[in-house]
Amino acid sequence: MIHHLSEAHSLVQIWINELRDLAIQQDRMRFRRNIERIGEVAAYEISKTFSYEAIKITTPLETTTGYNLKNQPVIATILRAGLPLFQGLMNYLDKADSSFVAAYRKHDEQGFHIEQSYVTAPNLEGRPLIIADPMLATGASFIKAIPSLLSNGTPSELHIVCVIASQEGINFVKQALPEAHIWVGAIDPRLNDKSYILPGLGDAGDLCFGEKLQN
Fold it and tell me: In the beta sheet, which residues pair with residue 165?
């Protein structure tokens, strides 16, 4: 199921515009904060899908009934570019546990493949799992990471959160993970010959944290 967060006019559109803008995106702190904001919006929207249970609350005047999550989610991200989006989700789902995946594109003569060197996760059994990565280009990073995460248990539901996705990447993930909910700030039409999203915004990790040496 696809949830397009900027399909209707909202502040998400403005943040996406600023993330794309070559002049504005040079403000690294603003770039990270706009990604974080999209994570906060996604967290609020995802929270509407969770299961809740009634609890008793004692106020200074009387006892009343409220509702709380049945199971706290686990929020995973793919290092390093996913950190601001992860932080936005954690800002709202502040009792969630965390999981981290270290993965990157390894370029060679044939193009690239995904190198994954580290995965850490708590028990996922029966809990909502949210995976945050700002750019869903081909979908290869998600498909590489998920089996490693699921070795820690079967989640009750699976949510994928990204800032910008290509239509090709969405189609690939939908085919591989039909049960997943995909929450996306914007959907772009195509990839270039290096599998970067067009029009996209460039390299999200470099714009957040600085350029890295190429492998």
Answer: 136, 187
Residue with tokens 């390093």: 80
Q: Which amino acid is at 214?
A: Q
Question: Facing residues of 132 across strands?
Answer: 77, 161
| CA–CA distance, 120 with 95 (Å, rounded to integer) | 18
Report residue 180 as tokens: 């997943």
Q: 10: burial class by Cβ within 10 Å (0-12, 13-18, 19+)?
A: exposed
Quote the CA–CA distance of 29 and 169 in Å, as a whole number: 28
Q: What is the mean pLDDT of residues 30-35?
A: 97
Residue burial 165-188, b: 16+ Cβ < 10 Å; e: rest? bbebbbebbeeebeebbbbbbbbb
**pTM score of the predicted model:** 0.90
Grouping H, G, I as helix, E, B as strand and the rest as coil, residue 88 is helix
**Residue range 51-81, pLDDT digits in tens:** 999 999 999 999 999 999 999 999 999 888 8
The pLDDT-based confidence of 113 (bands split at 50, 70, 90) is very low
Owner of token pair 């049945």: 70
Instruction: Evaluate the CA torsion angle 78, 80, 81, 84 in order and state its sign.
Output: positive
Say which DSSP state 203 is in.
Answer: -
Residue 126 DSSP code? T
CA distance 85 to 42: 9
Query: What is the Cα gyration radius of the chain?
Result: 18
